[in-house]
Amino acid sequence: MNSYAIRADAQYSARFFKPADGLDGGVRCELCPHRCLLRGGEAGFCKARTGESGGALPFYGFVSSVAVDPIEKKPLFHYRPGEKIFSLGFVGCNMQCPFCQNWRISQTTDSAVQAFVPEEIVSKATELGLKQIAYTYSEPLIHIEYLAECMTLARERGMANVLVTNGCINDKAAAEIIPLVDAVNVDLKCFSEVNYRKILGGSLSAVKHFIKAASECVHVEVTTLIIPDFNDGAAEADECAGFIASVSNSIPWHISAYYPAYKWDVPPTKAETILEIKKRAGQKLLYCYTGNINDGNPTYCINCGALLIRRGCSYKTEILELVKKNEDGVYYCGRCGTRTAIRY
Predict the structure, then answer these.
(1) DSSP 77-122
(2) Is the peptide bond before 268 cis (omega within 30 degrees of 0)?
(3) Minimal CA–CA distance to 177: which of 203, 150, 204, 156?
(4) CATH superfamily entry for domain 1-297
(5) Distance between CA atoms of residues 251 and 184, nearest Å
(6) Can you name the residues that pair with 322 across neighbouring β-strands?
(7) Are 173 and 31 in contact (CB under 8 A)?
(8) pLDDT at position 11
(9) What CA–CA distance (Å, rounded) separates 10 from 53?
(10) What's the helix, strand, coil split of the chain in %, to 5?
(11) What is the mean pLDDT of residues 80-100?
(12) In this predicted structure, which of 210-214, 268-272, 321-325 has the lowest mean pLDDT?
């Protein structure tokens, strides 16, 4: 554990821990499906939660990354398009994807960090003139207590909260954090419970539950990194698209190409594979977008075909035929008046 890990000035309440039966002085973390049993200062699977003093958060308030991003980078294509967002990254993760793009902060807690209390985060976003905060990069939900404080304060100041997550969290915790979120992008890594458990260290059923629960009250988009010989088969892609459509066929699905990272060195995903999956998914979903290939990703009106949003390189976004109607917080097609799935 880092020497700076325990903050004397940190005022927080560690939650989702309970005494472990048969483990004298030990606790069980109930945050995610791992339900880690912890003794003393032992860290859980995520490396960011320990059993000390009945459950501790040694990295509460420590942020590994701070940036101002286009909101499309999250990726969110149907929520406040064209706007900038204040982004926070953390350390640790409750999954161990061997192809992780952010492994330097997700698979360790030894990364350089800065300490911020929630007030500092919200004040900085305000100073920058930003209206939304993203909790992103590594897995933010293992720091759920900190997120809840930041999100509550942001809401009080009129800001929106965006969560970018693997969605691998138990239902009780999900039910507490989702009401504080305005938009979420969830990684749906594959559609095999076995691969989720054995290769990724996660739970497909937990992710599915999270997507369903979030879709009931917040804006949801889903991302899948397509990896050769892992999840690029037509049958599995169809299952992913089918599940998303069963929740709502208007949920945008971001289908991204893999590039070698961390422990995996299989060749990058071919653009043709991504485009074929997009084409097949388009039979079930209204909005499919590609990532890490040059495909443009425009958004059209599903009624009249008007070009609503044009997207270019470096997340350049041009809003065209979109009109706001303040009564419901969504955009309408400026040509035919059809209600879109794009929210503000």
Answers:
(1) SSBSTT-EEEEEE-S--S---TT-TTHHHHS-S-S--EE--HHHHH
(2) no
(3) 150
(4) Aldolase class I (3.20.20.70)
(5) 11
(6) 333
(7) yes
(8) 56
(9) 15
(10) 30, 25, 45
(11) 97
(12) 321-325
Question: In this structure, are residues 85 and 160 in contact, taking their beta carbons and an 8 Å threshold?
Answer: no
**Relative orientation angle of helices 144-156 and 118-127, to the nearest 10 degrees:** 40
Q: Provide the CB-side half-sphere exposure for 155 (13 A, CA).
A: 15
Structure tokens at 68: 């101002």
Residue type for position 192 = S
Where does the chain hold its CATH 3.20.20.70 domain(s)? Answer: 1-297
At residue 326, what is the residue type?
Answer: N
**Residue 159 carries which side chain, given as an amino acid letter?**
M
Count the helices and strands in the chain (H runs, E runs).
8, 19
Residue appearing with tokens 């509460």? 60
Per residue in 246-285, is it b (16+ CB within 10 Å) or e — as a string?
ebeebbbbbbbbbeeebeeeeeebeeebbeebbeebeebb
Residue type, 62: F
**The whole model's pTM is what?**
0.95
Burial of residue 245, with CB atoms counted within 10 A of its CB: 0-12 exposed, 13-18 middle, 19 or more buried: middle
Angle between helices 271-281 and 234-247 (to 10 degrees): 40
Do 274 and 223 form a contact (C-beta atoms < 8 A)?
Answer: no
Structure tokens at 309: 């949003």
User: Which of 77, 75, 69, 73 lies closest to 299 in space, CA to CA?
Assistant: 77
Residue 20 one-letter amino acid: A
Q: Within its chain, how far is the Cα of 293 from the centroid?
A: 21
User: What is the amino acid identity at position 229?
Assistant: D
| Separation of alpha carbons 211 and 168, rounded Å | 10
Cα–Cα distance, 26 to 41 (Å, whole number): 10
Q: Does residue 176 have a pLDDT over 90? A: yes
Count Cβ atoms within 10 A of the Cβ of residue 217 and give its class: 0-12 exposed, 13-18 middle, 19 or more buried.
exposed
Take residue 294 and report the two structure tokens written for it.
């040059």
* Mean pLDDT along residues 242-251: 98
Residues 107, 315: Cα–Cα separation, whole Å: 27
What's the average model confidence in pLDDT over 82-100?
97
